[in-house]
Amino acid sequence: MPAGSLSMLRRGAAAGVSVLTLALPGCTLTDASSNPSAGGQGGGGDQIAADQSLSPHPKLSANVSDASTDVTVDTPVTVRAREGILHRVAFRMARSGKSLPGRFNADHTRWTASELLQPGTRYVVSSTARGRAGAAVSKRVTFRTQHLTLHQQTYASVAPLQHEVVGIGMPVIVRFDIPVKHRAAFERRMHVTASPATTGSWHWFSSTEVHWRPEHYWKPGTKVHVDLKLNGVNAGHGIYGQLSRSVDFTIGKRVVMKPNLRTDHMKVLVNGRLARIIPITGGKPGYETRSGIKLIVEKFKSIAMDSTTVGIAAGSPDSYNIPNVRFAQRVTFSGEFLHAAPWSVYAQGNSNVSHGCVGMSTKNAAWLFHLTHRGDPVVVTGTHRGMEPGNGWTDWDESYSQYKKGSAL
User: Active-site residues: which are they?
Assistant: First the structure.
């Protein structure tokens, strides 16, 4: 999302709203006398009349006070009935009238909202309880939440993008624009579900970045749903989650690239079968290509490559400035790509002459570029230089048992 769009989104989330009372449906205890099929859902008037333990005048209470103006956004709004049974609870935003979900406990004496609160927003809770002989009492509570600035809210950006098709190694990546101290509280409200069902774990790389990867590579065709219920969650240091997010994406075909820099050839396997062996060249001495399991991070049909961006001074013997490198696929943040290198065709298949990238002919690079997705694994062997954690999406460069240790739970 462009920075301008994000700024507008965050400002909109922090803005206050005014009061407008609307009649909306809420959570209601079904009356078994009028709907026999609902008898197992808590009962209705006949059941209440038969329960002599109930008072004719039940008492209702909420954990927020009427007319309060500074309710914290991490408050789970709760309504309780004493000496009676909750019959109906309606929880809504006052201005928009949006109805918010919640759940009753088993005996219908407590109702709790399923969502936390927006800042600077007025809410209305209307509830009704019934006692013996169907006697009813109602309560209405109106309150406003605390105002939060953008500096008091952390926004989650998510990869993959909505409806993106990605590779079998793609992790779910969540980045926060303000650090999260209470990682466990956030992780408890971050869920990844898949069809077919897939085991996996969250792993915090820092206070601003957390990934989820499966125990094994995704199965091709898997449908994945990410649900981040982070709005209003206390992140610590006076910071709260801003907005909840959800993303759906799909796993594409199984594509695995295996560059071997001893043989200077790369095997490309598609759905377990060898599709092509490509002559390549890798990093020369002093610029060795890193061995390890990398993932395609981003793709460019054309990109400028300048040695000064990777610490090689302009004008030095090893400097370069190529304005139009074609079919480039990034695999590390430090500057390693798979890309077309027509200037080194003479070395491809027999020697390593690059500054760390894996180069190949333009024809082979174009074929590979149109085959792959973000998240496809690139398993590099043949060098003594290893991967640095976090230099790219390095989620697969350690065992699953080690990866799980990065969870906050």
Answer: 339, 357
